[in-house]
Design goal:
Elements (H helix, E strand, L loop, with lengths): L10 H9 L4 E4 L1 H4 L14 E4 L7 H13 L3 E7 L6 H15 L3 E5 L13 H6 L2 H4 L4 E6 L14 H16 L3 E8 L3 H13 L6 E6 L2 E2 H10 L6 H8 L8 E2 L2 H13 L5 E7 L4 H11 L11
Parallel strand pairs: 1-2, 1-10, 2-3, 3-4, 4-5, 5-6, 6-7, 7-10
Antiparallel strand pairs: 8-9
Protein name: Methylenetetrahydrofolate reductase
Keywords: Oxidoreductase
């Protein structure tokens, strides 16, 4: 058993380490291929989302899911509604994940294409199909947008986003599925806290897994943020980018996550319960940051 040496815990990093317990991370089949053994990077049982980008063969998705599941990780593949041709295709994907990789978890989302390529246009239709329940999928996550989403609400409002989230809450109320909201990544804590507290005040109780951009060069972070439609919190990056000398330096989520961790520590009913990483600077870089900040929670499976 390898021995990892961590800095003596302070009150601040203990709070952050507690918040990072059971964090999840996202990969794609093509990035997963570059990792020799995920057990050298991630804690045992880490939930690994597999992003399904349009054009990725389902065979590659299932093979990646099987590999991760065989190594002891909880696997959650994406089901992007707009790239699923029809009910038969959806049923086939669900069956293959279940039978070939033992998967019983899924992230349901509209997907990153402008127009539906088949019968489905949003995650609510996928939930309403009943196919996940009949296949024995026990955990279903859905997308959340703390800063809104211009693809869903082109006018900049939150009308459609909020209506969809209310529908998902009602679905959670009437089913046995374990649900959570996995959000887009953000950079500013105060609006995120306000958003989560507002949901709680309006009767929502679905746990929120906050999306976090893993460490990456500032210019890389800005590029992804613009591509992914990050909202007002982009100003955090833009402010830092005014100092040209910082463009090639890594931008880390320390302050963002510490702010959220401290709020959760002081408010035990806070809906944000987990951290979900988008490893924009690479899986290894993200895993190393987690090991340094999550204490025993971040020890890789092969070193625990």
């Amino acid at each position: 058993m390898a021995v990892l040496n961590f800095a003596p815990p302070t009150q601040e990093n203990t709070v952050l380490a507690d918040f990072l317990q059971d964090y999840s991370i996202e990969v794609m089949p093509r990035t997963a291929e570059k990792i020799a053994d995920f057990r050298d990077l991630l804690p045992q049982g880490t939930r690994v989302y597999i992003a399904h980008i349009d054009g990725t063969p389902i065979e590659d998705m299932v093979n990646t899911a099987r590999r991760l599941a065989n190594d002891g990780f909880a696997v959650m593949p994406h089901f992007p509604a707009r790239i699923i041709k029809d009910r038969a295709t959806l049923a086939d994907w669900i069956t293959r994940y279940k039978n070939e990789a033992g998967v019983t978890e899924a992230l349901l989302l509209a997907g990153g294409v402008d127009h539906p390529q088949g019968d489905f246009s949003d995650s609510m239709q996928l939930l309403d199909s009943g196919l996940f329940d009949s296949a024995g999928f026990t955990r279903l996550h859905v997308a959340g947008h703390p800063e809104g989403n211009k693809d869903i609400d082109p006018d900049g409002s939150r009308k459609n986003v909020d209506l969809a989230l209310r529908w998902k809450q009602e679905f959670s109320n009437r089913t046995d599925a374990k649900m959570a909201i996995a959000t887009q990544f953000c950079f500013e804590s105060a609006p995120v806290i306000e958003w989560a507290e507002n949901l709680a005040e309006n009767g929502f109780d679905i746990p929120i897994h906050i999306g976090v951009a893993g460490p990456a060069k500032l210019q890389t972070m800005i590029k992804f943020a613009l591509t992914c439609g990050v909202g007002p919190s982009l100003r955090v990056l833009q402010k830092r980018a005014k100092d040209v000398s910082k463009l090639l330096l890594p931008f880390k989520p320390d302050k963002f996550l510490t702010d959220l961790a401290e709020h959760r520590a002081a408010n035990q009913n806070f809906l944000i319960t987990n951290v979900h990483f988008f490893p924009l600077g690479g899986i290894k870089t993200n895993a190393k940051w987690a090991q340094e900040n999550a204490g025993a929670n971040g020890i890789p499976a092969n070193q625990s």
